[in-house]
Write a structure and sequence with these properties.
Blueprint (H helix, E strand, L loop, with lengths): L13 H5 L30 H26 L13 H8 L7 E3 L5 H6 L4 H9 L8 H4 L10 H15 L6 E6 L6 H12 L4 E7 L2 E2 L2 E2 H4 L15 E5 L3 H16 L5 E6 L18 H8 L3 H11 L4 H22 L21 H15 L7 H16 L1
Parallel strand pairs: 1-2, 2-3, 3-7, 6-7
Antiparallel strand pairs: 4-5
Length: 395
């Protein structure tokens, strides 16, 4: 570290907060070299070349799905899409560490975790197409639907984890959020509750360097993993573009949770290669040089380099994976045609567990409003048109 890496107060600058250092757990370098680590290696001892190839396949497929969904939004088929490009290792590595009975509480960018949990393409797209308030049944996939409110899922994960512990289960919960969410009250309150009650929860921060247009250096003057110290829980900082390091760190944290030792904060240092969402223009706040620097740390390229150095037929692997990725992308695109517009009055479904007069009064008012547009067409088409009008006003 050079003096230029610290500001006038001696605190860490954006450059120091984002570059690799001695505190960063890294098992595979950007050039594909495997680094031994006595603490973390035992946790990935089962990952042979075949398993590593499957992790690469996961990452390649979700990158292709992400690109296809972005294209669908640009073509007017989706209202919005939050790209995950660059964060594949952080999500696949942590997702593949989970047991089936562990529960995921995510934000809105965790499409790779949805892939790991078997979420169908139509279920993944419906929210972003505006045809459903949520995309899938959480209990069928062990994953809550995307949380748009920044950081709220950390509280949900903590409460779920505490409930699981009280019921005698050794299942864990895991909450995914970005670097900006660590400044939210909900996240810090979740830290307090989880640490106080030794909740079996893992807090997984994908530090992708930008909270929309605000750099991580504005969010924190120290590494985010160090925030765990003040709550009395361990914090670990891993190379979020290294799928093996992420897998090992998540397994360690999950084991700690299952043993009743409480929560862990993982800071996965990664990078959002695309925009915050398709409504964002990242060229307005970051440089081409920064983007080029992070391209050299690509999570997929380093796994390919390691596999090639280990004697794997890379050409054959890439050919097979590309075919699988193309099929997944085609299924995603085809799913658009299967997503029907909902009837307008379904907006009142699932708002409360039990009916109440307040909601019924709103439903009655909306029904009479819709009748103004009744031209003898089907309820579904009339409802869809009125729904679009109402949603436009709400926005």
């Amino acid at each position: 570290m050079t003096p230029s890496d610290r500001d006038a107060t001696g605190l860490l600058t954006q450059r120091e907060l984002t570059r690799p250092d001695d505190d960063l757990v890294q098992l595979v370098t950007p050039t594909g070299e495997r680094h031994a680590n006595a603490e973390f290696d035992p946790w990935i001892a089962d990952i042979d070349l075949g398993a590593l190839g499957r992790l690469y396949r996961d990452m390649a497929i979700v990158r292709r799905i992400d690109a296809e969904a972005t294209a669908l939004q640009r073509q007017g088929e989706l209202g919005l899409w939050p790209p995950l490009a660059g964060q594949e290792a952080a999500q696949i590595g942590s997702g593949r560490a989970l047991r089936d009975d562990d529960f995921i509480f995510s934000s809105y960018r965790e499409h790779a975790l949805a892939w790991v949990r078997g979420v169908e393409p139509a279920e993944l797209l419906s929210v972003w197409r505006g045809t459903a308030a949520s995309g899938w049944n959480p209990f069928e996939h062990g994953m809550a639907v995307p949380q748009i409110i920044i950081g709220a899922q950390a509280l949900h994960a903590t409460g779920y984890a505490m409930g699981a512990a009280w019921e005698g289960s050794d299942a864990a919960a895991i909450a995914f959020f970005g670097d900006g969410a660590t400044s939210e009250g909900d996240v810090n309150e979740a830290f307090v509750f989880a640490a106080s009650f030794d909740a079996p929860v893992v807090f997984f921060c994908q530090n992708n360097q930008w909270a929309i247009s605000e750099p991580v250096g504005l969010q924190s003057k120290q590494h985010l993993a160090r925030r765990a110290d003040g709550f009395g829980m361990p914090g670990v900082r891993v190379d979020g573009n290294d799928v093996l390091a992420v897998l090992a760190a998540t397994r360690i944290a999950l084991d700690r949770a299952r043993r009743g030792a409480g929560p862990t904060l993982i800071e996965a240092v990664t990078y959002r290669m695309g925009p915050h969402t398709t409504a964002d223009d990242p060229k307005r706040y970051r440089t081409d040089d920064e983007l080029a620097e992070w391209r050299e740390r690509d999570p997929l390229a380093r796994v390919l380099a390691l596999l090639e150095a280990s004697g794997v037929d890379i050409a054959g692997l890439e050919r097979d994976v590309a075919a699988d990725a193309d099929r997944a992308a085609a299924e995603l695109r085809a799913a658009i045609t299967t997503i029907a517009d909902p009837e307008a009055l379904t907006v009142f479904d699932h708002v409360y567990a039990e009916p109440n007069s307040h909601l019924e009064r709103q439903r009655d008012h909306y029904t009479r409003y819709l009748s103004m547009f009744d031209d003898g067409s089907t309820q579904n088409s009339t409802g869809a048109a009125a729904s679009e009008t109402a949603e436009g006003g709400a926005r």
